[in-house]
């Protein structure tokens, strides 16, 4: 679509335990980005309780959307389209955002855009680097996905390798739990790892066909901790965290480097919650010394937010791809181009 005016997209995100709304101009400029996290509630249970997440989204979604419009200093009638996450995620949580967005579009006459949450994470890079354009290689690292993705165009992806079992973020959360750390475990492991040394040696997370496997690493850490407990030996948790963090990230960086070189790309990016990991961000910087452009979303855009959904929505808007009132939640939605193992 050829457009000669500014496009304002209202993004809505409710796939897990964050209720978020944002207004983004032309896919790149954040006018507001409101995120209400439910972490303090789910912490009490050691993880996200889907039923509680849905009920909390219902309570706050209207307030969060209105706040996003107010903070952007924009009226609903100036918005060009509403973009909402419809997958992947928790079905009940997704349905809250999807139903709200459908109601809003029905009442206002605005077009509705269905956004894949994972594709949204990739777009967090466009909000941090307004000059970034495909093609580039993206390391996708979230609580549900782990992959090296060749971003050929705004809506064309080639998934070159991915996890055959657990996602990297899931492994961080499970290892944190066995170490007695709070939910979500990723940031806790990250912090603890900074004061430890990677003295424990675990197998690489890269399996023979070039994909990732995190379940073996998770089990190895759990066995290490449980064996020590059974023998009454003390274990340095910071060293365990550093050892796990190192091997969990090194495999990702190795495969990202191999695929970037093999595909002759000059830019590497990262997306998803684990993209906030300090060791991963340090290792990403190595690519700069090797002559690559390195993109890492701002920390506030690594985790779940609606600005990335609005950005993704903008590129779908340009394609004239609108959803209708039959839009439903799709909890197992895959990235376009993702093949099953
Ligand atoms: O992308 P995200 O916010 O949600 C999903 O789409 O899954 O990712 C959440 C994951 C959680 O597993 C969380 O523990 C992890 O990202 N995470 C981190 C860090 N911050 C969040 N993992 C490692 N280090 C961090 N600093
Ligand atoms: Zn996410």
Task: Report what the structure shows.
The strands form 2 sheets. Strands 3-2-1-4-5 form a 5-stranded mixed beta sheet, with helices on both faces. A 5-stranded mixed beta sheet has the order 8-7-6-9-10, sandwiched between helices. It has helices spanning 39-43, 50-72, 91-108, 117-128, 168-178, 185-193, 215-231, 237-262, 278-289, 299-302, 307-318; strands spanning 8-13, 18-25, 29-37, 81-87, 112-116, 136-141, 146-153, 156-162, 267-271, 293-295. It contains 11 helices and 10 strands. The protein is an alpha/beta fold and 341 residues long. It folds into 2 domains: 8-127 and 302-318, Nucleotidyltransferase, domain 5; 133-299, 2-Layer Sandwich (Nucleotidyltransferase, domain 5). A hairpin with a 2-residue loop joins strand 7 and strand 8. The structure holds 5'-O-[(R)-(carboxyoxy)(hydroxy)phosphoryl]adenosine and zinc ion (ZN).
Kindly state the mean pLDDT as a whole number?
96
Query: In this structure, how is the largest beta sheet organized?
Result: 5 strands, mixed
CATH topology of the largest domain: Nucleotidyltransferase, domain 5
List low-confidence stretches: none
Q: How many helical elements?
A: 11
Distance between the termini: 36 Å
Tell me, what's the shape? globular
CATH architecture of the largest domain: 2-Layer Sandwich
Task: Please state roughly what percent of the residues sit in beta strands, choosing from under 5%, 5-15%, 15-25%, 25-35%, 35-45% or over 45%.
Answer: 15-25%
